[in-house]
Structures are given as C-alpha cells and as structure tokens.
Amino acid sequence: MARRKKIYEGKAKILYEGPEPGTYVQYFKDDATAFNAEKKAVIEGKGVLNNRLSEFFMTGLNTIGVPTHFLKRLNMREQLIRQVEIIPLEVIVRNFAAGSIAKRLGLEEGAALPRPIVEFSYKEDSLGDPLVTEEYIIAFGWASQQDLDDMIALALRVNDFLAGVMYGVGIKLIDFKIEIGRVYEGDFMRLVVADEISPDSCRLWDVKTGQKLDKDVFRRDLGNLTDAYTEVAKRLGVMPSNVTHATKPTLIN
Ligand SMILES: Nc1ncnc2c1ncn2[C@@H]1O[C@H](COP(=O)(O)OP(=O)(O)O)[C@@H](O)[C@H]1O
Ligand SMILES: [Mg+2]
After folding, report:
1. Tell me: the pLDDT tens digits for 176-197?
2. Which DSSP symbol is given to 213?
3. Which of 80, 93, 135, 154 is the 20 to 30 A CA-CA neighbour of 120?
4. Domain 6-82, second-level architecture
C-alpha cells in the first residue's frame, strides 16, 4: 500500500495530502492538550467524536450558506476537506464570561456579556496564542480591514447557528473558537470556516444544571471527557443513543 504524504501533525489532528489537488484528509487524534500543551493526555474515543461532531456542525453551516472547508467524512476518524490558506488567528466569540475574559476583567464565570464579543488571538504556540487587537492584525498584515469585517460577520453567523442548535438540545453556548482560511477561485478570494468545530473548541454548559460538556472537563479535571462529548453527540442525534465510545474486549475466565 502506498504511504500517503503527511502535510502537518498538530496537537489534535493530522493533515494528509488528499486524493485530489486542493484537498486534504484531516485525521482526528485522541490526544488532548491544555494550557498551551503543558497538560497532555490520550483520551480514548475523543477523535471519533470530534470527527462526527465537526462534520455535523460544518454540514449544518454549509446548508445555511456559511462556507466551510468540509467536503465529506471518510471514516471514523477522517474527513475530506478543502485545502485553505489559514489566517494565523484564532477567532473567538463569547456570549457569556468564562476562561481568560473572566480572569482578565474579573467577571464571574457564566455572567452574560452585553452582546456577543468577537476577539482574536495570534495563533503561535510558542507565545501561548496571545490576544491581539485589530490594529496589530492590520499592521502585521495577517488580514486586511475588509477581511476583518468579513471574519467578524462570519464568526457571528457561526455563533447564531451554533447557539441555536445547542439551545435546542438544552446546551448553552458560552463561547467558541474558529479558524478561518482563504480559498482562491480565479480572480476571487473568499473566507471559509476551517479547522474544526467540536467540544474541544467550544464551552458548552447544560442549560439546567450548568454541567460542563466541553474541554474544561479535561482542563479542570471534572470527570471523563469522552462521556461529556458522547452526551453532546447523543443529544444532537449524531450518535445512536445506545452506542458509547469504544468498548474494550473483556477477558472471560
Ligand atoms: N482546510 C485546511 N487547510 C489547511 N490547513 C488547515 C485546514 N483546516 C485546519 N488546518 C490547520 O491544520 C492544523 C490542524 O491540526 P491541530 O492539531 O489543530 O494543529 P495545532 O496544534 O496547530 O492547533 C491546524 O494548524 C490548522 O490551522
Ligand atoms: Mg488546533
């Protein structure tokens, strides 16, 4: 069997050369990292769940006219995506205070924000993905003013979609992060949602109990991460409710 070309191996995913020019195969690993990769673990079943969940969100976005890199799911851990030129920014949308904004501004976790807040951090692990202003982004040429306006509009559309879908299954969308890439078509360039949308990149709280169903379960040692992600997948109907994560063979004496 021919070995395929590995394009990039990141913390949670691997990109392989795709079957056609302009495509990649995105492989979801079970690796989990937090605090800029200071905390690491292998969480059995996470990659399978994130592959399914990212497919679910990206397909939904495509259906309502929000362009994404997603083409099709190939198998349990892999999906075919369009190759894009990633803008080196993490685009974060916050509906409620949590994480760094709560810390920075002394807000209580879960406090409602006056409106959705979009912020950017520079995607550079060695610097811990620092928060950057629009001034920085334009001055350093990471994106133009037009790109920024388009990125904010795109991020807010994703927010409305995700928040609505989540609320429909009793989950509050606290915040999320996306990456955006450029696709060139002849003389035109457009921005599309890339990377992944999964509980690794969102904060999701149960509406009634406030239980966390996202990567904070791992960051803060709140329980079994795969169980939390399985709960999200079950509620969204992307996994039959009787199927949980990979079962281990058991020895019969
Ligand atoms: N459609 C795409 N085209 C090109 N690169 C992509 C695309 N989608 C995601 N990427 C990049 O692939 C990598 C995915 O692997 P990940 O494990 O998340 O890496 P990282 O550790 O850099 O966050 C990221 O660097 C992301 O920017
Ligand atoms: Mg990543």
Report:
1. 999 999 999 999 999 999 999 9
2. -
3. 80
4. 2-Layer Sandwich (3.30)
